[in-house]
Amino acid sequence: MPNFKTSISIIILLLVISCDLTPSREYFNRARDFEIEGDYKKANVLLDKAIEKNPKFRAALLNRGVNHSILENYKGAIADYQTLLEFDSDNALALFNLGNNYKRLKDYQNAISAYNQALDTEWVIKSEPFSPLLDRDIKINFDYSFDKDSDYTVDELDIIFERGIALVLNEQFADGIRDMEKLLAKEYYIGNCYYWIGNAHVGLKDSTNACQNFIKSAKLGLKEARGQVKEHCLKNKN
Known about the structure:
Layout: H1 4-18, H2 24-37, H3 40-53, H4 58-70, H5 74-87, H6 92-104, H7 108-119, E1 124-125, E2 154-155, H8 156-169, H9 173-185, H10 190-203, H11 207-219, H12 223-232
Parallel strand pairs: 1-2
């Protein structure tokens, strides 16, 4: 018959074995390895564990949201960004990504609202565009520091561009044109801005200005603009 001390030792050992002692940051780092490999489902399994251990782990919530978006689970992405914003309402990056996912769901009004909130935060930077990739959620990657507020900054030009698109798609054409003209003054994605100004003028039934902008965009190499030139500017030239 085992003695009392042996029984206690066995119970403690079983408790230790059954407990998950892996730190949340370790799960986050392992998830990054899968993200680099493009296996976002496996990455999210690890991020689930990180968030379970630390429900206010901002970077894990944000990156899981980005992975959901890549997997086209836009509602799942929105849920993660909203959870983050419940305890960090001034997070510009979460608001920016939130707007992008509402836009993908064609919920343009909520997208515009999220972009407006992002622009009102203190973590908007006035400099060069954050990334040359359009319509992409931004992910957190840590190197020498971990989870500072400054990790969640977004360039205001990126936000204005995505808001301008949402405004045009929401048939707020004049407002969309204003956003794109602001960006042209900064020489930001010039071809794309001309393209969306052209689309806004199509909505306004102003074919002359639409064609002028589509042609400018096409000359800068935007393939989508070439299609719009054929549809709106050459159909009556035959």
